[in-house]
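R.M. (postdoc): so does anyone remember the format we settled on? I'll just put the structure tokens first.
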């Protein structure tokens, strides 16, 4: 390729990377405006304020909190030093200097910022035109006609326009600006080095270690590029012409730690953001943040946090005191599953059905009812039926006789004798849906061609259930399971959450025959309050697995609600080896085996696939999924599943996906099947 073309391509990539700064600062302003953190200076660096989604606000909060944690620790360790410095690489429109200056935290401290010349010029213009920012500088701004990389020079703040890949130019300019190479220095890099080719980012890490003998390197970047969320994350930045380079060569926290130790740093601690948030952010602060905005995107929040890390690396024994500390008791014990050599085959079904938060039930062999959920077309009030005929599966939209309304994360439970009960859900995180509906599918005609719409083939009769007794509070992300007591069938509603309770631990029995909420004695230690768990009918009772608890930590407990003469009793069974904890999964009991599929765990290197738990022997087996024939990232959370035929051990997985932070929304566009024959025989 001619040199001129290569240069133009490089300039184009550099410009795209600079564009990520503009988007990032708008998101930071949004988070600050909603009270996630205090920063009154960021607003001066944006032309127009835009409110971001709660998920993005939380994501930028945990980034801000992690960096602030490291800076405060650095200042604490160096408080008696005659001079200390912050060197921010790729600083963009960060307001760090102004915030620290206002907090009177820059005692005997100087901030140096380095970024592309165009970014530095734009930032200088914003500072120069703003009386608040300009008033916080105690010396002069270089005049617009001045040449050279130094754009702002003040007693405690220096802004330089340089390409950090050019080591000799950076060293020369920092020398001229007054950086003391022997003084304790914090080098800050927030999602900067990963945009460089790895050979260049490694050089930056090496020269920083070589030239700053008493220093702390703080870095915030992405990891785990190969799982479904990571693939979507990579594609997003690729479309922006801002390829993530380092994540390929250094895909996890262990690789990043080795990287810094190999490049001359003496000690290194690296935590993903789930470990940081749950282990190093005080519970009181987490509680404050978690009630700032209505929120119900747990899966995407935890996946975002598992794909970013905060790292500290030290040079000099003195600076080792400023390293991140590991939580004294890890809230997320490391789980490395022992995978079975068998991988379960996954195949796509050529039917266009997508959505998250849907609920399904198997009405009869080859007939699956789908209700609610949200998709690219919006939140759906129209139900669908999946029908399997001789030529395969097809999807039919059906108009209910009574409007079921827009609802997500509800339940549809098949009843003995026919029909199903729709219960709970939400239309928004502030609006849970109460009431129950009994639904029945009318007769189906012979299956037509796969491309036939055939709306009249299925009728959905809906009747609102008028129930007596003490109704449970409305909820979503709960379970509703058929259990039996003294010859009667009950719908047992357990757990979930609502607009006022982050997690519920109560259980309620509805007698289906009398349509009456009643009390039945339940003995033993109940599962802790949770939501997004699974519950399957089992021997007259049910088996509960997984879920997300009040602290926001996934569970891996298996608890059986067993019937007895008085009512029921909870029996917690110890499964060996312990399954990977998870939530937002699906589960089915097949004989004496509980088959659990998908879900979310907080460590991306242990993405849940399938675990089979033998309820008699109390043993478990983890199996991977062979998704080589699936042409898109298969995200197995917020989905539903059905065992479509007891004669054929095959699971049908429908829907799933979510809003992948700021990387766009992904939906699994078609159902898939999982062949269970290798584990069920």
């Amino acid at each position: 390729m001619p040199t001129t073309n290569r240069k133009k391509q490089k300039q184009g990539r550099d410009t795209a990377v600079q564009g990520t700064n503009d988007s990032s600062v708008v998101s930071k302003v949004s988070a600050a405006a909603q009270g996630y953190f205090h920063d009154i200076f960021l607003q001066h660096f944006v032309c127009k304020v835009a409110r971001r989604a709660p998920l993005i606000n939380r994501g930028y909060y945990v980034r801000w909190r992690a960096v602030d944690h490291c800076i405060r620790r650095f200042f604490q360790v160096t408080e008696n030093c005659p001079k200390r410095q912050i060197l921010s690489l790729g600083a963009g429109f960060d307001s760090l200097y102004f915030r620290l200056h206002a907090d009177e935290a820059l005692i005997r401290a100087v901030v140096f910022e380095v970024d592309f010349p165009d970014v530095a010029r734009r930032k200088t213009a914003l500072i120069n035109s703003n009386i608040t920012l300009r008033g916080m500088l105690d010396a002069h701004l270089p005049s617009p006609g001045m040449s050279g990389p130094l754009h702002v020079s003040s007693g405690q703040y220096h802004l330089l326009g340089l390409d950090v890949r050019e080591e000799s130019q950076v060293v020369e300019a920092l020398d001229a600006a007054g950086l003391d190479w022997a003084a304790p220095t914090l080098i800050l890099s927030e999602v900067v080095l990963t945009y460089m080719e790895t050979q260049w980012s490694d050089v930056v890490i090496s020269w920083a270690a070589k030239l700053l003998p008493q220093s702390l390197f703080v870095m915030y970047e992405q990891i785990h590029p190969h799982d479904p969320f990571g693939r979507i994350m990579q594609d997003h930045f690729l479309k922006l012409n801002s390829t993530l380079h380092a994540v390929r060569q250094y895909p996890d926290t262990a690789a990043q730690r080795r990287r810094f130790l190999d490049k001359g740093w003496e000690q290194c601690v690296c935590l993903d953001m789930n470990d940081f948030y749950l282990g190093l952010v005080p519970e009181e602060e987490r509680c404050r943040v978690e009630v700032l905005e209505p929120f119900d995107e747990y899966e995407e929040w935890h996946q975002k946090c598992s794909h970013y890390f905060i790292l500290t690396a030290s040079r000099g024994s003195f600076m080792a005191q400023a390293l991140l500390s590991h939580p004294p008791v890890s809230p997320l014990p490391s789980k490395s599953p022992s995978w079975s050599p068998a991988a379960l085959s996954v195949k796509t079904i050529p039917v266009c059905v997508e959505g998250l938060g849907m609920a399904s039930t198997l009405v009869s062999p080859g007939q699956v009812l789908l209700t609610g959920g949200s998709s690219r077309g919006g939140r759906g009030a129209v139900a669908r039926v999946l029908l399997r005929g001789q030529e395969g599966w097809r999807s039919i939209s059906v108009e209910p006789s009574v409007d079921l309304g827009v609802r997500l994360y509800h339940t549809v439970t098949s009843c003995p004798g026919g029909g199903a009960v729709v219960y709970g859900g939400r239309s928004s995180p502030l609006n849970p849906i109460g009431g129950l509906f009994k639904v029945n599918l009318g007769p189906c005609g012979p299956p037509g061609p796969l491309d036939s719409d055939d709306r009249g083939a299925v009728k959905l009769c809906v009747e609102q259930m008028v129930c007596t007794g003490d109704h449970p509070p409305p909820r979503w992300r709960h379970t509703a399971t058929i259990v039996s007591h003294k010859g009667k069938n009950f719908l047992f509603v357990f757990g979930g959450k609502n607009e006022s309770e982050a997690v519920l631990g109560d259980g309620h029995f509805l007698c289906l025959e009398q349509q009456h909420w009643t009390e039945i004695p339940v003995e033993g230690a109940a599962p802790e309050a949770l939501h997004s768990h699974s519950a399957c009918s089992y021997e007259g009772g049910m088996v509960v697995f997984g879920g997300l608890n009040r602290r926001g930590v996934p569970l891996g407990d298996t608890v059986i609600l067993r019937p007895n003469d008085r009512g029921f009793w909870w029996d917690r069974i110890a499964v060996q080896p312990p399954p990977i904890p998870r939530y937002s999964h699906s589960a089915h009991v097949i004989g004496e085996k509980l088959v659990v599929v998908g879900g979310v765990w907080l460590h991306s290197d242990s993405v849940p696939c399938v675990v089979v738990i033998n309820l008699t022997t109390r043993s478990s087996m983890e199996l991977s999924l062979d998704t080589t024939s699936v042409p898109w990232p298969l995200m197995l959370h917020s989905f539903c599943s059905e065992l479509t035929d007891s004669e054929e051990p095959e699971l049908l997985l429908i829907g799933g996906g979510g809003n992948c932070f700021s990387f766009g929304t992904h939906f699994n566009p078609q159902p898939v099947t999982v062949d269970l024959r290798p584990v069920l025989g």
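R.M.: ...and that's the designed sequence above, right after the tokens. Also worth knowing: Confidence is low (pLDDT under 50) at residues 444-453. Residues 433 and 487 are 30 Å apart (CA to CA).
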